Amino acid sequence: MSEAKPNPRTIHKMRVAKIVDYNPQIRELFIETEEPSEFRFKAGQFVMLHVPEEGKPKPALRAYSIASSHDNKKGFQLIFKSVENGLASNYVWALKGGETLNFTGPFGRVFFVEPPTEQIMFLNTGSGVSQHLSYMLSFKDQYPDVRYRMLFGVRHEADIYYKPQLEELKKSFKDFEYHFVLSRPPESWSGKKGYVQTLMHEFNYEQIQTTFYLCGNGAMIKDAKALLEQSSIPKERIWAEAFD
Q1: How far is 38 from 79, CA to CA, in rounded Å?
Q2: What pLDDT score does 183 carry?
Q3: Which of these, 22, 46, 153, 196, has the minimum number of CB atoms within 10 Å of its CB?
Q4: Is the peptide bond before 164 cis (omega within 30 degrees of 0)?
Q5: Does domain 12-107 sit in CATH 1.10.1370.30?
Q6: What is the pLDDT of residues 112-143, one digit of tens each?
Q7: How does DSSP assign the chain, residue by residue?
Q8: pLDDT tier at 1 (50, 70, 90 boundaries)?
Q9: Mean pLDDT score, 95-106
Q10: Does the pLDDT of residue 9 top 90, yes or no?
């Protein structure tokens, strides 16, 4: 008997089990189910956080990509990027742990395409790495031999986060390479500079069959798609989730 599909309209009451701050702009919440007792989703999907809004009867809804494996039915992880004076940012950064939050979902249809192509390229900015982490954690046992490449865009060297987790994830794959790309690097920075979309060509995607997953700000995604179209990459091998 097949599992019943989750109802995205169901309000899930979930507890903040752990909070990790990577820098002043990036916070990760580890969320555990309360009621209902399970939450099922597919890698690549997102949830809506219900944010109380003073003076209004209904909460504001904010979308966040899930950053953990779809094998876990008892919770998930979310990565937040702070927005100055943002309603949701103020709410999330006021949390201390132990609170019960309301979510609806899962939503979204940007799924991992199976079987995968020889090479997978992830381009992300801000907290867009969330979606790509979910793909890799969910499918690492099924497709460990695929060539995975990630370009992770941030502004400054101080904005870099999740490097230890990516180093740990590398151990699960035979060929996973990631690069932080700084748009405002210091003179001492010896890594990649500029914007993630302008560095795609370094990974030989015109000779190696490649699927692209883009997650982050809309300008990056628009530029990346335009460059890929110039290279005649089929649209069915370009998947994107934009947010600003």
Answers
A1: 20
A2: 97
A3: 22
A4: no
A5: no
A6: 999 999 999 999 999 999 999 999 999 999 99
A7: -PPPPP-TTSPEEEEEEEEEEEETTEEEEEEEEEESS-----TT-EEEEEE--TT-SS-EEEEEEB-S-TT-SSEEEEEEE--TT-HHHHHHHT--SS-EEEEEEEE---PPPSS--SEEEEEEETTTHHHHHHHHHHHTTT-TTSEEEEEEEESSGGG---HHHHHHHHTT-SSEEEEEEESS--TT--SEES-GGGGGGGG-TTTS-EEEEEEE-HHHHHHHHHHHHHTT--GGGEEEEE--
A8: very low
A9: 98
A10: no
pLDDT digits (tens, 9 = 90+) for 209-244: 999 999 999 999 999 999 999 998 999 999 999 876
pLDDT category of residue 4 using cuts at 50, 70 and 90 = low
β-strands 176-182, 147-154: how paired? Answer: parallel
What residues does CATH 2.40.30.10 cover in the chain?
12-107
What is the token pair recorded at 55? 């003076």
**Residue range(s) occupied by CATH 3.40.50.80 in the chain:** 119-242
CA geometry: angle 13, 15, 17, nearest 5 deg: 160
Cα angle 109-216-121, degrees, rounded to a multiple of 5: 75
